[in-house]
Amino acid sequence: MSADASAGDASTGDGAAIDDAPRPATYYHLARAVLYREFLIFVRYPANAIGGIVVSLFFFAALFLGGQLLAGQALTDSIEGIVVGYFLWTLSVGAYSSVSNDIGSEVQWGTLERHITTPFGFAPVALLKGVAKVVRTFLTSAVILAVMLLATGTRLNLAPLTVVAVAGLSITSVLGLGFAAGGVTVLYKRIGSWLNLLQFGFVALISAPVFDLPWTRVLPLAHGSAMLQRAMVDGIRLWEFPPADLALLVAVALGYLVGGYLVFQLATRRARRLGVLGDY
Amino acid sequence: MARSATSARGGPRERDDTDAARDESTPERSPPPALAVEGLTKRFGDGDDAVTAVDDVSLTVERGSVVGLLGPNGAGKTTLIKCALGIVIPDAGSVRVFGTDVRDGRRAAYADVDAMLEGARNDYWRLTVRENLRYFATISGVDPDSVAARHDRLLDRLDLADKADTPVRDLSRGMKQKVSLASVLAGGAELVFLDEPTLGLDVESARTLRAELRRLAAEEGLTIVVSSHDMTTIEAVCDRVVMLSNGRVVADDTVEALLGGTDRDVVRVASPDLDRETVAGLREAFEVVDVDRDAHPPAVTVVAGGDRIYDLTDALRAAGVTVSDIRTVQPDLEDVFLDRTGTVPSAAAGGESS
């Protein structure tokens, strides 16, 4: 700020105005701003989170009670697997829809452009937003998991590091899908709501037969889901997994994240060419 | 913002066109202008449906000046702004922001430019006013703590200090618009685009916003490009006006020069004696622009510049007209626009006008 401009401000009695030379923001400031915003919205508008938890639990209750009627003992035997699978599904849906819906909303509000035209570039902002969404989803899904365990009387291995690492990497691939869907929404606004149906496809991915069809391991979620089952049901710790399994988990996560981001980038580039970015 | 000191001190507002021309011809001696657009062209669609939104537009905006883009809806104002921001990729031409090509080094250019786009919220309604300023300052590349005092000052000037900790969604429309403006200015961008900033505001809020814009430009040394179809906003805020019609620049000059340049010195004469016959007589010797028979008393508007005013009074006396009222009609930007394009900028849109 110029001294000239501040001088005229002496009447406000704001002495600090004289030397408020702006300092450039670092990635630390960026991370703080993005995460703090997510936090504020989370704590200030808890109804969204609570609503999501209630709906998820309602679906689980329907699944559990209906399953007991139909399958009886067979369901009770596999209840651990179902709880783990459902936990991963709520995580996936949370990560996917929060990212793709968020992009949709930001387009509507005209705030997406401001994130695209940031000197940081969109990628770090998007990544931080993704991290914030994942953290948030872990919090709500943890509540859902706790209620499921209590209601069904199931016991699982909940080694935090293992569960967070395996589940986190599993849903990173979904985060990539969320970015891709968000990008498509920027271009074709009406398709956006249809893409939400994709989350039901996650059920198939989570229960993919990775032992019979090993190639399904490269699909999002499938390999991670199998590892999460072993971790939570059989009590395998993160460092007890074969390195190849861990490497594949990381590779799939990064592959879909980068791929999804590239789709988003291509879509926004096309949107800029067509002039549909910032069309309210 | 480091640049704002230079622009405020230099008082570029007082510069005239010759200065601007000299700046352009000696780029090595003076810093590059805030905005330099050259041969910008953007077409949307293909084949018969193709629309040329911006057609070979070139213009320069000097640092510290406030320039208006005036034109009806569809004239290309918004596309021009979006091209300058890099939100729309042009088909041809270049845009430089403080000397940085938007296409090559967008990230470098983005640090100095921000925009309030028409119809957009531009901020988060679920955050408070201050949270928005801090968030968008960071996004624009500025540590929010280092500009906290500036934010206080900005809120003070925009009369938002009491509402600093109120979520934006709880504010009135006029205040939301001001928060949107504040969030755009929060990061200290030196070149700010404001697309229809008074659209949808009531008369009072629009007037306040215009006054604030003028003050902010002067005190903060900002370079502002205001796009509007509303002449009142442009006339009140801008030093210079670029008129756009069908994607082309039809005029680019200071407000005074444009208003002075209309060769239509128009006089409005009111008299109870202005009957049909008298008016017909006047039409033979003068260009009668308008006849208002419903007025009390009836009035005619006649082009009578320079010495023609004497001819007019002579003719009125000869016709036995007792004049109740005679006044010159000041041309406004709408007249200028009409002269140059044959259309009225506000014709295509309904919006705030006061």
UniProtKB/TrEMBL annotation, chain A:
UniProt entry keywords in alphabetical sequence: Membrane, Transmembrane, Transmembrane helix
Residues that span the membrane, as ranges: 45-65, 134-152, 158-187, 194-211, 246-264
Presence of the UniProt keyword Transmembrane in the record: yes
InterPro entries: Nod_factor_ABC_transporter
Keyword Transmembrane: yes
PANTHER family associated with the record: ABC-TYPE MULTIDRUG TRANSPORT SYSTEM, PERMEASE COMPONENT (PTHR43229:SF6), NODULATION PROTEIN J (PTHR43229)
Name this polypeptide is given: ABC-2 type transport system permease protein
Organism per entry: Halorubrum trapanicum
TrEMBL record, chain B:
InterPro entries: AAA+_ATPase, ABC_transporter-like_ATP-bd, ABC_transporter_ATP-binding, P-loop_NTPase
Keyword Nucleotide-binding on entry: yes
Gene3D superfamilies per record: P-loop containing nucleotide triphosphate hydrolases
Record's keyword terms, sorted: ATP-binding, Nucleotide-binding, Transport
Superkingdom of the organism of origin: Archaea
Family matches, as SUPFAM superfamilies: P-loop containing nucleoside triphosphate hydrolases
Composition bias, Basic and acidic residues: 11-27
Gene Ontology MF annotations: ATP binding; ATP hydrolysis activity
Tagged with keyword ATP-binding: yes
Region (Disordered): 1-35
CDD domains with a match to the protein in the record: ABC_DR_subfamily_A
Span of domain ABC transporter: 35-271
Pfam families, alphabetized: ABC_tran
Family: Belongs to the ABC transporter superfamily.
Protein name: ABC-2 type transport system ATP-binding protein
